[in-house]
Amino acid sequence: MLISDFHKLYKLEGSTNGVIKAFQDFIYSFYNRKKRIFPFRENVTPYKVVVSEIMLQQTQTNRVAEKFLEFIKKFPDFKSLAQASVEELLSVWQGLGYNRRAIALKKIAECIMSEFNGEVPRDLKALTSLPQIGHNTASSILCFSYNIPTYFIETNIRRVYIYFFFSGRSQIDDKEIMEIVKISVDKNNPRDWYYALMDFGTMLKKKHPELNKRSAHYRKQSKFDGSTRQVRGKILKLLLEKPLSTKKIVNKINYEEKKVLEILNTLKKEGFIQKEQDKFFIKN
Questions:
Q1: Architecture of the domain defined by 39-146
Q2: Phi and psi torsions of 108, nearest 5°
């Protein structure tokens, strides 16, 4: 079936069982031929799922795949991650960006050890009580950890549903997409279903990069060069090498002193760094 044939069928019949089955067959046909292989999809455990899902927030899959095995080797379970120092954690996390996620992941591990006996809960409400975990991330963790049917949307999934079910439309709300997500999930194997959706969505990004711009939730990504995020990363990288004074940090990264001070204070509040006398260093 061609996509044009599917659009005609959907326009004629709506979201009937037959249309949903045709959609599922379309997605699975592609997945069976073109599925991507990643280390976090093999020998799945709840711990590996939690680590990969936090890593995958705002970071491309291929970059996560490169770092994932190194991270798992260094911190093989929730216990070792909970006991890790911030310095150890950031040393392994280097290259992934958005370092707040590393701290959040450590806090998640601490909570799972102290409140859930080292086990990832099988309950959405319990999962959303953990740091850095909202409804979508909790749903994906539950699905990928235990193959339990859940409903969530991320950028690649959104792209797929726009492509199939919202031909010619713009300003598409996620609430509309979610209605179709709920009736189209493969309840017998939700884990593979969502893998298949994401893989199809990645293919669509290359062929139809404009699709997600038709979402009501589309936001243009801000520039990285010269951003606060870039400076935060540079500061942490410097301090992983050795403690430094504010003056030396400013000189090394060539950035406005006032803004550097603001970023240093924020990093201190967030638990990344400490200050003794006139030097900053990574928190133990």
A1: Orthogonal Bundle (1.10)
A2: -60, -45
Amino acid at 64: V
Tell whether the model's pLDDT for residue 257 goes beyond 90.
Answer: no
CATH numeric code, 228-282: 1.10.10.10
pLDDT value, residue 249: 92
pLDDT at 168 over 70: yes
- Greater confidence (58 vs 18) lies with 18
Q: Do 228-282 and 39-146 have the same topology in CATH?
A: no
In the predicted model, is pLDDT for residue 263 greater than 70? yes
CA distances 201 to 11, 12, 146, 171, 174, Å, are 22, 25, 23, 19, 16
Model confidence at 222: pLDDT above 70: no
Catalytic residue among 13, 53, 176, 256: 53
Confidence (pLDDT) at 221: 65
Q: Is 53 a catalytic residue?
A: yes
Tell me which of 174 and 234 has the higher pLDDT. Answer: 174
List the chain domain ranges.
3-34+154-214, 39-146, 228-282
Give the CB-side neighbour count of residue 203, counting CA atoms within 13 A: 15
Contact, 89 vs 68, CB < 8 A? no
